[in-house]
Amino acid sequence: MSDDLLFMPAVTAAALIRARKLSPVDYVEVVLRAMHQAQPVLNCFATIMEQDARAAARDAEAALMSGRPLGPLHGVPIHIKDLVNVAGVPTRHGSAIFADNPPAAADDILVARLRAAGAIIVAKTTTPEFGVKGLTDGPSFGITRNPWNLDRTPGGSSGGCAAAVAAGLAPMGLGTDGAGSIRGPAACAGLVGLKATLGAVPNEAGRDAFGSNIYAGPLSRTIADAALMHSILQGPDQNDPWSIGTHHPATLSPALTGTDLSGVRLGYIARCANPRVAADVTANTQASLAAWAGLGAEIEEVTDAIDWIEYEGRVLYQSTFAVFCAQYLPQWQNQMDPVTLAFMQRGAGFGMPDFRNAEFARTRLFRAIQALFTRYDFLVMPTMTRTALPVGHDAANDDIIIDGEPCGITRQGWTSPQYPFNLTGHPALAVPSGFGDDGLPTSMQIVGKWGAETDVLRLGALLEQTCPWAQHRPSFGAPE
What we know:
Elements: H1 2-6, H2 10-18, H3 24-42, E1 45-48, H4 50-66, E2 77-81, H5 109-116, E3 120-125, E4 137-138, E5 142-143, H6 159-166, E6 172-177, H7 183-189, E7 192-195, E8 215-220, H8 223-233, E9 265-268, H9 279-294, E10 298-301, H10 310-325, H11 329-332, H12 338-348, H13 352-372, E11 378-382, E12 401-402, E13 405-406, H14 410-413, H15 419-424, E14 428-435, E15 441-447, H16 453-466
């Protein structure tokens, strides 16, 4: 029964709780026990909130038994990436700089919304320093491992969240995504990961509210769970100008209401800035395309010459870290992640003309993608060019090797399909596409028009229905 609970979708668990067939106290206890057993192996939690979680579970059970109104996630345990404030718990940002950070005084708006929906916060999950890279490790906490293969990374920077969900340690978690940090871990761990439209989910903590490329969203094992969490997170907040007055209705395009996709046009992008895609990823991508085609979708390869602005995107990304982190160098340089320092050094070499030209390039990329959406309803592509990298990979210097060929560092050779849509603001969903030759998950990315999260989730759900994935569990399994 404990194994069934650990891998039960959140929507199922919430329904059982509402029907009084599942006790929130018992449910949380099973999850906490599994978390403690898995933590020495996976190292995916920055903080396990044992006392708070148990108290919240007791309150949830009392509310259930007294007949009070219940939210859609009532009694369901979830965890929060350690870049997001949770009241009473330190936010350490994956960095030695904040190892002794005092407990946060208040919940982030997204945590508050999840609590209001009845969710029980059980932990904060690991992240590389300030979410800087696509692997989850660092001098302040060690290595977070992928439950599908402990010698591989769960991706980054929401890697702790992905490892925990994949291992059955709560059905969903809240991640953040500045250059693919939800979708990359979802791809590495065989999960669903949603980056919504810019402004659909508010970013209360963003340092640059107007030039934002940072998003928050769900990591889960099923489309339904991702859709449920997104419905709770979305909506305006006074601290995020992109969200104010923005209305993204949860409407579904008529062409997607059934299982017949006739007339739905998918633009297949074989490569972005990356020079290669692994043969096993390509094979699984083709299988996903065939599944949609079998439902009637029209699929056409996009042959337009698109400038994916890899260099300009790097200017924006690395110069931001150079400016933001400069204040910490005098005291903390020797305790910071070498990758953070390398990105800072490169970012410091860019000048104002580089930065402004990169901002102009962001606009050009947005307009190029908008032009594609005059011909296509969705853009689809591999989420990552290969399966999860070995732990210990140097994200600042090591080449990505694909089918024996070096393909540049992570941003160029591995995660290049992800960062463009942080810059353009379009919603992007990572969904499992199968398993590679090494037994690790592969993934498909679905990109939609602005505000079309519901359509993107629906197209993912049709793939999930045709090629189910949630029944697969890592060999690491559910700890006994």
